[in-house]
Amino acid sequence: MFFKITSFLQLEERSYLCFVYIDIIQTNLWKTSKKLSNSSPKWMIRRPPRSTLFPYTTLFRSKALTSGLINQTYLVKSVSPEEPDYVLQRINHLIFTNIEMLQHNIEVVTRHIRQKLEARHEEDIERKVLHFLPSTNGKTYFYDGEGYWRISIFIPRSQTLETVTPESSYLAGLKFGEFQAMLADVPEQLGEIIPDFHNMEFRLKQLREAVSANISGRLAEVQDIVDAIEKDADTMCSAERFYREGKLPKRICHCDTKVSNMLFDENGKVLCVIDLDTVMPSFIFSDFGDFLRSAANTGKEDEADLNKVKFNMEIFKAFTKGYIESARTFLTPLEIEMLPYAATLFPYMQAVRFLADYINGDTYYQTRYKDHNLVRTKAQYKLYLEAKSATPDMKAYINSLL
Ligand code: GN1
Ligand code: MG
């Protein structure tokens, strides 16, 4: 597979990094234009303006960085110790159709957080908030004629966790609560980057449309799951009803709060929240519930052995304690009362989304095998049932914190 990025990005005021035609799989190399100027003519090189400085001596290597299902993310590794490493992403613009709004939201959020950190005189701010580089058009993205690319500075000495402990869950709860608190006074209205992203009524509507079209002919095989999902549909849509009645607010949320979207330092302390694509107005349930969907699941998101899928109460308790500590200042009593609902809502919603995609013939999520989306659906539905039966315990624990 060849990647054609014949663009160059501005790193600092007078220095540019030139990306050339690349075959990641064959060569696994990124090179600057000088390095490549004598090499095979199939490499397309765009020459920079004369005045620009180049990091001539730097050789970049790239490798796939994350396990995300939506964008393609690469670590662009510099061999020169003076150059930072970068995170290069090809943005999935079939999903994020409004790249201008996407990057605008991200710029607003990172600027706002940076200002808050500066006001608090925090140390090491570069590691506590993402820094996206402007491209030659002054925007934080670049369109190469086919795709949209963006680049941010890789935060050094950072790591992501794929699994959690009660300690790291507590820290994550604190941090995601703080993230919402920090963005409570964002000066600009953020766009809803994926309209109705966590709207349960909308997700059920998509499932119902998939069911009635049955485009892949897969419906018969999944009818029993569809029926089971439908039984709880009304209850699971209660947040939207309360919103219409003016009882629940929407706030700026992260909307993809898995533990892998948080960077930890070498000592296990949280540095910052990453993957800001879906930051937008939502119910706070998005951040609370989606974190637990991944972290409190004792199995994998696509666990085939359903016996392994349980709701981990220790993780729930640790995360909830941290979250309530930092979010308590702005949470309403109804938001707090509905936190256990949020913990059931997200596995339910994810089951609905995976199932709709399965019935649609796998058009949204990247899949690794034929019935991957069905396996995911069953695992998420099982987690929903487990969380539902833990509801009385969740309520009791939350009451003990208040
Ligand atoms: C997608 O790409 P990733 O893994 O960050 C999806 C989330 C789902 C998640 C399920 C924009 O996120 O909403 O919960 O997959 N993001 C989008 O793994 O649809
Ligand atoms: Mg994401």
Which short descriptors sum up this protein?
six-stranded antiparallel β-sheet, 14 strands, disordered N terminus, binds 2-acetamido-2-deoxy-1-O-phosphono-alpha-D-glucopyranose, binds magnesium ion, 402 residues, alpha+beta, globular
The counted number of beta strands is 14
Radius of gyration: 22 Å
Helix content: 40-55%
Low-confidence stretches: 1-62
Shape: globular
- Quaternary arrangement of the chains shown? single chain
| Main sheet summary | 6 strands, antiparallel
Can you count the helices?
14
Explain what this protein looks like in three dimensions:
- By secondary structure, the chain is α+β, with helices and mostly antiparallel strands.
- 41% of the residues lie in helices and 14% in strands.
- It is built from 14 helices and 14 strands.
- The strands form five sheets. The protein has a six-stranded antiparallel beta sheet with strand order 5-6-7-8-10-9. Strands 1-4 form a two-stranded antiparallel ribbon. Strands 2-3 form a two-stranded antiparallel ribbon.
- Helix 12 runs antiparallel to helix 13 (372-389).
- It starts with a strand and ends with a helix.
- The relative contact order is 0.11.
- Residues 68-70, 95, 256, 275, 278, 301, 350 line the site of 2-acetamido-2-deoxy-1-O-phosphono-alpha-D-glucopyranose.
